[in-house]
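Fold this: Amino acid permease
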Amino acid sequence: MKNQIKGVSYKKMDQSYFESRKLKRHAGVWSLWALGVGAVISGHFSGWNLGLASGGWGGMLIATIIIAIMYIGLTQSVAEMSPALPHTGGAYSFARSALGPWGGFFTGLVENMEFILTPAVIVFFISSYMSGVFETGTESLPYWWLGFYLLFTILNISGVELSFRLTVVVTILALLCLIVFWISSIGHIDFIKNALNIKAGATGKAELLEGGDGRFLPMGFSGVLKALPFAVWLFLAIEQLPLAAEESVDPKRDMPKGLTYGMITLIISALMILWLNASIPLGSFALSQSGEPLLDGFRLLYGDSIAKGLALVAVIGLIASFHTIIFAFGRQIYSLSRAGYFPVSLSITHSKRKTPYIALITGSAIGFGVLMLTRFLSGTEQSEVFIGGALLNMAVFSAMLSYILQSASFLMLRAKRPNLERPYISPLGKAGAYVTILIAMITIYYQLQDVSYRIAVLSAIVYLIIGLIYFGIRGRHRLILSPEEEFAISKREEHP
């Protein structure tokens, strides 16, 4: 039976439809904390350091503080919305209730792009590390990609208990790896000489300043703004937490705590790694050119003789993020499929383990396909440059769009449904959402100033336009009255 509501068609399914799409509750507050921190932690191992070339150490520090403010505003807004709308849909669910079916689909499509591309990039770097350790050569990279996708997809399918236990373990191991580095660095730091050893050259590009003692902002405040996209990697993907709402034991109580504790952990870690990684003799300039900043720091502290062992240690942070974001795209595809935005077969869960196995397999297959396509388009030798210059930036662009849409959803829900039961109220209120939107828009603008970013953003825009055309022609007539959709079209208000 189909119903027409505001230009979209819904089909009401019987109970058997939802029985075959059940999830299992397991996660407590610390499992949610680990899921959020684990998704982000690879950005503390590598990626952030490239911002040093854009703004110097001072520019990167201020950029990190600005981006941290954006994420605090975002996570507090999400912490309010998630307990009020405790569905697996996360960002799609918020936007569907606030912005209608078009807004819900577009937000879901944007977030889907972020969560598919991010683990594809992460597994590329995991495989590069492993290829170096085992000396297998670049021609073996696709086998590493396939192996890691298979392993962690199977682990995610095996059950929510195992998935969350593994998340906690790898997240704690990654943090311990960082803590060991921080403690080891203390006796070797010289902040003035090493962290401030970047100057602006005649062309405005970063150059080595022998002896250090340079300017705090060698590229001026414009360097701060150019460093913003790189600072994003210190926090990117913590917003995935609400996707675990239907697998949380008590999402109304635990989701805000998981988001808040996660942000506190990540801010401390971000400031520590920025200070100590740049202050050891490696220095900011060398760090800004490094593809493996933490590993290079360990090599400096402990010597090249144990480099392979250190590389395996450094992989832990990448694995933590890879595993947790696979969890995220599985739930994100599942929620959009259950509501009919994606093919409904993708939301079927395993009969015994109650995990969205088809969504997990599909997301992994697409991620692996993207990697193989980039390898084909760029050539074996240039694939790292292509991935670094395109896929990473597409993920950042889609994340910024998602943050704008989620913050707009927060503002709209405050206006449209003021009496909605809100177990948690953001202490930042509307101001936090407005600040998030402003910083996300500035970050996108500075992405567009770089040619490689511009190409990536335009590619992402083309993909999103194709998605919207599909929804307009066909997708909007195939929707299902899932929990997210029923809540969105309900006029019922719950008073605190």
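Confidence is low (pLDDT under 50) at residues 492-496. DSSP finds 18 helices and five strands in the chain.
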